Amino acid sequence: MRLRDISITAWIGMIGIALALICAVFAPLIAPYGETEVVGGVWQEADAQFFFGLDNLGRDILSRLIYGARTTLFVALAATVISFSLGILLSFIAAVSGGVIDTVFSRFNDLMMSIPTLIFALVVLAVLPQHLVVLILVMAILDSTRVYRLGRAVALDVAVMEFVEAARLRGEGTTWIIFREILPNTLSPLLAEFGLRFAFSILFLSTLSFLGLGIQPPTADWGGMVKENKDGIIFGISAALVPGSAIAALAVCVNLVVDWLLKRTSSLKGGRGDA
Amino acid sequence: MSNSTETESLPGQRLRERFPLLALLIERMLLSVLLLFAVSVLIFGGVEALPGDFASTYLGQSATPQAVANIRAELGLDRPLVTRYFEWLGGAVQGDFGTSWASRNSVSEQVGNRLGNSLFLAGFAAVIAVPLAVGLGMLSVHFRDRLPDKIINVISLAAISLPEFFIGYLLILYFAVNFGIATFPATVFEGMGLLERIKAIALPTATLVLVVLAHMMRMTRAAILSVMSSAYMETAELKGLSAWRAIVKHAAPNALAPIINVVALNLAYLVVGVVVVEVVFVYPGMGQYMVDAVTVRDMPVVQACGLIFAAVYIFLNMLADILAIVANPRLRHPR
Prior knowledge:
Shape of chain A: elongated
CATH class of chain A: Mainly Alpha
Low-confidence stretches of chain A: 269-275
Strand content of chain B: under 5%
Strand content of chain A: under 5%
Number of strands of chain B: 0
Order of helices and strands of chain B: HHHHHHHHHHHHHH
Mean pLDDT of chain A: 83
Largest sheet of chain A: none
Helix content of chain B: over 70%
Oligomer: heterodimer
CATH topology of chain A: MetI-like fold
Order of helices and strands of chain A: HHHHHHHHHH
Low-confidence stretches of chain B: 1-8
C-alpha cells in the first residue's frame, strides 16, 4: 500500500500518537523541570516560563505531562499487549479445538463479561496490594475477555476453510495451525481491535488513577494529575483540564487510526458497509 | 446461549410446545439467575482466593500475630470459606449485607439510601439520552455520507474518546464556576423537592448523557445501516418510495430489535458510568460509596456494591435479550 492512500484523519492520528511516544521515550530530555520538582507557588498561572502553569504542589504541569506520557503509555501498552496475547491465544485454542475446551472457555468468558469491567476491577483492586505489576495484570486480564470474544469469532471464520483442513490432514499440530494458518489470515481485523483496546486501556487506566486506585503519587500519570488538581476547578483554576485534554487527545488520535484501519479492512473484504 | 437446558423435564417440554415464547423467556430468566449465582461465587470466593490478608492490612505493618488472630475472629474470618459464603449469600438475598468494617454501620442501610439516588440519576439521564440518540442515529442514516452525517460522525468519535471525568470537570468549570447557572457539588438529601433535585443533578445528568449518547448513536446508526443494505430496502427504493418513508416504514421495524439491544447495552454502560460521575460531582450514590470502600479495603461494602452493580447489569442485559426476542419473531425459533 502507498503512503497517499492514508487519509488525512489517519495522518493526524498517527502524528498525535508519535508525539506522545516521543514525549514518553525522551521525557528527561524534553521536560524543562523534574517530575516531582517544586518550582513555584501552588496553582501559579501559566506564563512564558511555565507553559501550562503549576499544579497543586507547585510542580510544572508541562513537565509532569511529559513524564506522565511515559507512565500512561507504558502501562496502557503493556496491559494491551498482555491482554491481546492472552485473549488471542485462548480464543484461537478454543476455536481450533472446539468441543469441551471451547465450551468451558466461552462460558467462563461469558461469566467474566457479565460483570462490568470497572466494577470487577474495583472489587479485585480492593483486595490486591497496590503495585504496578498487579495493576497491569488486572487491566490485562479483564480486557482479554473482550479480545477473546472477537478472536474466537474471527478464528471460527477461518478455522473452517479448506487450507486449515488441509493442514490438519497433513498432520500439523494445534500450535502450527494457530500460528501459521489462522493468525496470518486474521491479522487485519485484529490490528484494528488492538488499536481499539489500546484506546480503551488509556481511558480505563486514567479512570482508575482518577479514582485513586491506579498509579500512585508522586509518579506523574494523566489520570492521577486530574485527581490531584480537581479541587482547583471550584476556584476556576483549569489545571485539571490540561491532563484531561491530553488523555482525550490521545484517545481521539488512536480512534482516528482505528477508524481508518477498520474502513480499509472492510473494503478489503469487498465492502460490507459501515456495520 | 440456548443450549443450557438440554435436560428439560416433562412439564418443561409440554410448556415449550404450548407456549414457545413463554418457555423461551423463562429459560432466559433462569439463565440470568444462574449467572448471578456464579457472579456471587466469583465476587465472594474469587476475592477470598486472592493474596492479601484483610486482617493484617486492617491493622497495618506493626500487627502482632495475636492481634491479627483476634481481629480475624471478630470479623468471622477464621471460619470456613463455604460457610461464610452461604451466610453472606443468604443475607444478601434477604437484603442484609452485614456490617461495614470501617464504620461498623449496617451496609444495607447505606445501600438503601444510595441505590435510589444512583438509579434516579441514571434513569433521568436515560430518559434524555435514549430518544436523542435514536433520533440522531436515524438522522445520520438519512443524511448518510453527506455533511450532517459527517459532522455527527466526527463529533461522536471525539465524544467516545473523552473520559467521563474530563467532560464532568469541563461542565463544572463552564456552567458552575464561570457562568454560575448550575450547582456544584450535586448534593441531594431526603425531603428535597423534585424540582430542586433535578436542578442539583443537572450537570451530572448532562455528563452521563454526553458519555452514552455518542456510543448509542453510533451503534444505532450501524444497526440501521445493516438493515438498509438488505434486499427489501433496495426494492423499496426501486419502487419509488421516498427515503424517509423507506426508513420509517421498512427499515425501522426490522432495526427495532438491534436498536433495543443497543439501548439496553448502553443503559448497562450508564450504570458503570455513574461510578465516575458520582465521584466527580460528589453525589451521594452507590458509586461513590463503593470507591470510598475500595480505598479503605472495606470488603463487606465492596462485595455488596459489586453484587448489586453486577445484578443491575445482568438484569438490563436480560431485558435486552427478552425485548429482542419479543420484538423479533425470528429469534423465537433458534436453529
